[in-house]
Amino acid sequence: MKLWSTPVLISAILLVLTFPHFSDSLSDGAPASACESMTPKHNTDPQTSPSPYTITLSKTDITVGQTMQVTVSTNDESVPFKGFFAMAVSKTSDYATAALAAGEMSQFDQNGPEIKQVNCKTGIGLTHADPELKKSVTFNWTPPNEDGEYVILVTIVKDYRTFWAKQVSTVIRVRKDGGFHGVEKSNEKMGVTAAVTENMEITYDGCGATKGCFGHPSKCVQKKNCQMLTTWRVEGSAFRFQLAGRIPDNSAQGHVSIGLSSDTFMGQDSVVGCVLQNGAAIPKSYYNLIGVKDNSGYKNETVGLIERSGTVVDGWVFCNFSRTAYFDQPELQRVFDLSKENFYIMLASSGKMGTSKVTNYEKLGYHYSDVSCTAEAYHLTSFVIAGEKSNILIQLHGAIMIIAWVMTSSLGMFVARYYKQTHTDFNPFNKAFWFVLHVGSMFLTVGITFLGVILIFIEISGFSYHVGSRQGQAHPYLGLVLTGICGFQLIIGLLRPHPGTPKRPLYNWVHWAAGNIGHILGIACLILAMELPKARLSQHKTAWGFTLGAFVLFHILMHLTLSMQTVWADKKLNNGHKLRGISVGPMKPSKPEEAPGTSIRTFLLFLYIVGIFVCGITLIVILFQAK
Known about the structure:
34% helix; alpha+beta; 627 residues; elongated
């Protein structure tokens, strides 16, 4: 056994001595001679497939004298790496052929993997100091003492014959004084910190000139006050994207996402989320299907992505990633060709994440209110500042429903109950005053409700099953029931039996019940509108809720007042139904003459009209001011 094992041992020793670079590359890191090429001498070419590793930056804008962190990590825990070599270079340098190091890299975590500095003459790089398998490594970078734009280059070695050379991070802008003071002041009122402003300024830079841009709310790119922003440009054979935005509700998890769609509706879209997880921002691939409001993730979260990086700054996420021009998404039964197709660009954000019911993989949390879409489809080679799709049909739908269910229906029901014995000598069109006002108000309610339904169906191209939170999802269903009640009331109103006939009492009860149920559903739909993303009321919930609450309280108080006034008037008339004013159901008929207190009832009617119109107009103003 000893005679057999000795030659084997000698052969192994000779193999290592013959290839000293193998020992160097996997034991104590890259030598200084590797600074220029950043390529290990492993007698094999670098991988050309997408790297399974990610470069994450703690910030993308830094002032001279500061230090930032760089993390190299695997996208899949089953694919660790053994070695790496990293250094920063000027973005404008010819680093593809000859890399010149800039600034100084150093150890960040003393308890992390062993690493060591490499003197590259013009700067200090960093490499591994042991061949142990690593899932991630974090280190510091201190920039040089001058303004400029830099990138981090990292060569990552999985094993002796498998490595990815010169993987490029997102661009880091270095400034001596931090800059952006004027923009900082303009954003302080919006609760945006100076650090966020600086990073956003970098994202705005070049919009409409060297890259295409789209932001939310409308015209925010020009004003530089976006809450969500994406940019795109051609970079070689790929497309480079930037994605930035605020995570709603200061949540510790969530996303800002971009979707590429052939229309303005969710379904069959390719999505990339800048996902906030464990304090880091990570670009990941998702997709959604027609009729399934679920942005599902993949087992391989880098589908269609070539390179990605991200950073988190004061509750905002900033991601950079590249997408291949041509990629297949079999789940959608579709191939995306970014170089040939035009796309509607969608933006959304949420403070939540979840698990997909479709794939059981991670999914993006639903965007309850922060969502936007371009007004038209764009080619991704165009350097445009894209306009936001108009929300006018949504706003008109909401305004019409406010008029119908806060104003006209309320008035029509109010006069029908309390004003049959008021101004009995005034008969426009040879009809009783109350009847003309009631029928006119209710016909207007039914007509504009139908119009509002038509507008929303045009906007969303049919019926939407998933329109927001659990509460918000009830809105379209209640709306359909309400529309059905309107049609039912119209039909039975036209076919109503004459007063005094046997079927009249039944009609009165059915007409009264359907009217009150419809009115309650109408107000409920307006309350639920706060939970609808397209209504964009997330920042106006307090004002919206307070106004609706004030209307409901005012409506109840006025009904109580008129009920008591009716009881008083019936006593004066010696009416046999002295408590009909406070009874449940349709009010029982009384004597046909004018009831006492006409002046009081006229004033109360005027007050009621003013009250409901003030509430209604306030709601409409809130709706049209919502961003």
